């Protein structure tokens, strides 16, 4: 069903593009920034902002709209904020009416952002980062935390140009009961060797070293491990389907390590690793039946009402290093803001995006729990959030990115092959050698389809 939806979307966008060409007599300049002009009678530019209403709520976007209109008297904002944003905006887009700015991340079931990426439907916004933040005397690039615009999640074509700007971010890692480790006198491990040693100690007391909610949560684990094993360039090679990359020494030690985790994983994990029962695996950590699980900061709210062991206290650590002294990584998820190539007011849209990193906007978003990747953000945080987000202040490096966009290849999914098969690896039904072979074969099939 999802493939059919994506195909219909692709056809509709192609047909719409042909209509545009026909109406413009083939003039390719009609979509350039110089063709802007949606203005009211009083000379104000009407800027259409489309934002997904997520767990942060809608109120912050109303406040952002009011703040920007107060700061820029030449702009009037038309705001669309919906939980089902794709369904709301798609009919207008198919009729040729595009929002000027989208806050809509990749990874959504509707895959609207990915569809536009594949259709070259996003505006190149590389120049935004050299502009001053609206109303401030500092550039966007100087305001942003390092590394957040050097990833395939922002540069989907892998050519150095940026098409999506980073917004709200959330670090991930291995979550655990800090109270239990303190009670037992166990040190938080920093290497995989120390992990195995702790696993043996815990097993003597009937506690498993590891569990995971579902195999999908391994995207953060695998990503961090790939960075740790071979560095940024190696990670990007895996994300761009380089020939033989999954058979390399760096990839092999990642897959071998995950396979070894099977010996230390709670026996109920695989049975519960599904959308209906995943919280049972998370509960294993709260009940001191398992020590560590991969997760993100959202798990705290997700399990807020769940029972827990006495003296339970959330802790989060990065993925262990392979060797003592080597770099450690914590994968970071972030939402993205972008401009459609068919937007009518691109210059005004760029100015609005720069405002997203202003002190005023950061403060508004922070009130709703949405945290921007800007310099000094951890100084504004309190409690558990300060602990989670300060992980990058302690020598831990951020891991970010995703697989490069490709044309659909029937029957091939890197997500299913790389992550979905982990249940079979953990249950002993799939050897890491066969898993590695399957991953390399999927990568080989996707490489020719890469945009």
Which labels suit this protein?
globular, D-Maltodextrin-Binding Protein, domain 2, 18 helices, alpha/beta, 451 residues, disordered N terminus, single chain, 9 strands, 2 domains
Describe it.
The chain is an alpha/beta fold and 451 residues long. The chain has 18 helices and nine strands. The chain has two domains: 27-169 and 333-399, 3-Layer(aba) Sandwich (D-Maltodextrin-Binding Protein, domain 2); 172-332 and 406-449, D-Maltodextrin-Binding Protein, domain 2 (3-Layer(aba) Sandwich). Mean pLDDT is 89; it is low at 1-35. The protein has helices at residues 2-23, 59-71, 85-94, 112-118, 140-143, 178-184, 192-203, 218-239, 249-261, 269-272, 278-286, 298-302, 346-355, 359-367, 383-389, 414-420, 422-426, 432-446; strands spanning 45-52, 75-82, 101-103, 165-177, 208-210, 290-296, 314-317, 329-338, 397-399. Strands 1, 2, 3, 4, 5, 6, 7, 8 and 9 form a nine-stranded mixed beta sheet that branches. Helices cover 40% and strands 13% of the residues.
Biggest sheet overview = 9 strands, mixed
Report the order of strands and helices. Answer: HEHEHEHHEHHEHHHHEHEEHHHEHHH
How much is the radius of gyration in Å?
A: 23 Å
Separation of termini? 23 Å
Strand content: 5-15%
User: Which architecture of the largest domain does the CATH hierarchy give at level 2?
Assistant: 3-Layer(aba) Sandwich
What class would the helix/strand composition place it in?
A: alpha/beta
